[in-house]
């Protein structure tokens, strides 16, 4: 039975056949799922400035079914998307060890992949992770900007106000960066995906929930992990993600002030520092004995 074809972008340093692999699990973030953006391109935009400064990493950005070049096929729910990505991992990455990064719903899928392929995964990065798939059950704050400037907002055109939505930091500098990211990165991908196929999953809680096993307090994942959330994230929030620290004992948990579900906007230096710290911890563990009781080795 077909589970949709995965299209990949593979970036690598030529002439280095034994490079460690980084697998980027790309998925639309919560707020962007509704606008059907081709999220793998956004992932590359945010992570390539970091990885291009480093030697020895292949980057594989995956175009999930329905999100651009990969057809929906028989995809009917999040479980079938997970199966499609897991099949891709088994065919194109295993038995090599790799790192996995997931954003929003992609982080939800990445957690399932981390459990399923734990022995091969050296590190896990969860950016603005979707933890509670049922919107009404999420612990969310109402939108309150970190910096408010009503006069500045009133000077924006109606088209800009609609395009920008809730603006977390209402300063000219932030708005300029935010606008450029939306126009250059997000808007070009709006028409790339299968609206009907994605909406049928996103709007049905029974289809938007994974049945797969995830790491828990009882069965933790002992590899270096970064959980990166935004305090002003009104889509998935940050409080639902806090219990993940018990599932991932090597996790750094960050709740960034003045950051929303689209982070990073203007906090790219801090974002890079956090990702670099995660990569350093991964490499440190790769060169030392793993802790006793690491269930991810079984």
Automatic annotation (TrEMBL):
<dbReference type="InterPro" id="IPR050266">
    <property type="entry name" value="AB_hydrolase_sf"/>
</dbReference>
<protein>
    <recommendedName>
        <fullName>AB hydrolase-1 domain-containing protein</fullName>
    </recommendedName>
</protein>
<dbReference type="InterPro" id="IPR000073">
    <property type="entry name" value="AB_hydrolase_1"/>
</dbReference>
<dbReference type="Pfam" id="PF00561">
    <property type="entry name" value="Abhydrolase_1"/>
</dbReference>
<dbReference type="InterPro" id="IPR029058">
    <property type="entry name" value="AB_hydrolase_fold"/>
</dbReference>
<feature type="domain" description="AB hydrolase-1">
    <location>
        <begin position="54"/>
        <end position="266"/>
    </location>
</feature>
């Amino acid at each position: 039975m077909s589970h949709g074809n995965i299209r990949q972008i593979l970036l690598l340093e030529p002439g280095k056949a034994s490079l460690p692999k980084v697998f980027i699990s790309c998925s639309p973030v919560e707020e962007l799922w509704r606008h059907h953006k081709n999220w793998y391109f956004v992932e590359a935009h945010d992570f390539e400035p970091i990885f291009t400064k480093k030697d020895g990493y292949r980057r594989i950005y995956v175009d999930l079914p329905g999100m651009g070049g990969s057809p929906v096929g028989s995809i009917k729910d999040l479980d079938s998307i997970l199966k499609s990505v897991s099949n891709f991992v088994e065919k194109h990455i295993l038995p090599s060890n790799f790192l996995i990064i997931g954003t929003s719903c992609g982080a939800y899928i990445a957690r399932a992949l981390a459990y399923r392929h734990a022995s091969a995964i050296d590190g896990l990065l969860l950016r603005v992770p979707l933890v509670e798939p049922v919107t009404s059950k999420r612990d969310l704050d109402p939108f309150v900007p970190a910096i408010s400037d009503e006069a500045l907002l009133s000077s924006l055109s109606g088209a800009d106000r609609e395009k920008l939505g809730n603006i977390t930091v209402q300063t000219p500098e932030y708005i300029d960066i935010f606008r450029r990211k939306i126009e250059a990165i997000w808007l070009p991908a709006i028409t790339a995906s299968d609206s009907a196929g994605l909406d049928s999953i996103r709007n049905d809680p029974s289809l938007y929930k994974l049945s797969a096993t995830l790491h828990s307090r009882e069965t933790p994942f002992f590899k270096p992990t970064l959980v990166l959330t935004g305090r002003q994230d009104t889509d998935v929030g940050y409080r639902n993600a806090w219990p993940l620290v018990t599932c991932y004992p090597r996790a750094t948990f960050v709740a960034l002030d003045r950051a929303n579900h689209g982070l990073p906007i203007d906090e790219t230096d801090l974002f890079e520092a956090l990702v670099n710290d995660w990569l350093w911890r991964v490499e440190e563990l790769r060169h030392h004995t793993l802790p006793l009781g690491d269930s991810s080795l079984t």
